[in-house]
Amino acid sequence: MKEVLVKNQKIDNSKKSEKRQTNFSRNHSKEVDAGLNKTTTIQMKGLLDDIEETEYPFFTEKSFLDMAMGRIPDFESLYLSLSKIQVASGVPVSALQFMPALGEYTLNDPEEIENFVSNPETNHVLVQNDLIKIVLIRWEPGTECGIHGHAEGGCVFKVLKGKVVEKRFTADDAKEQLAEGTYGEGNMAYIDDQMGLHCVGNPFSEPAITLHMYTPGNYKSVKK
Asked: What is the tens place of the pLDDT at every residue in 25-50?
């Protein structure tokens, strides 16, 4: 069984984590600092076939380690779907272009779901570069984010497990509510600031899991 080296200690992973490591070992290898003086060797390709890895690296160091250790689900299939996207000049103009890849991704492994639900961290930035930002969120019952806007290219999100409620508001100081909708497992939605602002929450009794994609990626959403 292969092992992950973390600060001179060998961490023996499950067969599933070993498979995850093998899957991510593609074309490039680089050593990165994982914080707290811990290091690991990460082998992976770039985001899109026609974009250099050095300019648009895919998974963040932390998310790669979390996937390898089984703390968050395996997003190998999502990467494979994204790698097929053909974008002129490598720069998407709308997050809508990510919807086919997002639509293909499902979260069905009971062990992955159980591990993620028990993980004390609820918000995970999987990818963040100039091209795209991908965020995985677990919504505990009764939680709701603030009203906010998005990057110029907008946001697409998908419910992977459970249900969430999205509220949409006018993009002005009044922030009048325009609509409210409930999204169940497999549902996707798109929003940009021309359409309005929104907030997402989980008023239900079970946790929910959502996956969000934004473009451009290096954009800090401002709470309105």
From this structure: 333 333 333 333 332 333 333 334 44
For residue 224, tell me if it sits in a domain.
no
CA distances to 24, 107, 168, 196, 197 from 179, in Å: 41, 28, 5, 10, 11
Any idea what the CATH number is for the domain that residue 207 is in? Answer: 2.60.120.10
Task: Output b/e per residue, 138-169; b: 16+ Cβ within 10 A.
Answer: bbeeebeeebbbbbebbbbbbbbbbbbbbbbb
pLDDT-wise least confident of 69-83, 103-117, 202-216:
69-83
Domain that holds residue 100: 3-214
Sheet-wide strand order for 143-144: 143-144, 197-202, 164-169, 177-183
pTM over 0.70: yes
Whether 219 is covered by a domain: the verdict is no
For residue 88, what are the contacts with CB-CB under 8 A and spacing of at least 6?
none
- Rounded Cα distance, 162 and 139, in Å: 9
Q: Is residue 223 part of a domain?
A: no
Task: Say how far residue 214 (Cα) sits from the centre of its chain.
Answer: 10
Which residues make beta-bridge pairs with 161?
209
How many domains does one find in the chain?
A: 1
Going by the DSSP 8-state scheme, the letter that residue 108 receives in this structure is -
| Unique residue bearing structure tokens 């990626």 | 217
Mean pLDDT for 105-125 is 95
Give me the percent of the chain exceeding a pLDDT of 90: 55
Does residue 95 lie within any of the structural domains?
yes
Using 50, 70 and 90 to split pLDDT, how confident is the model at 222?
low
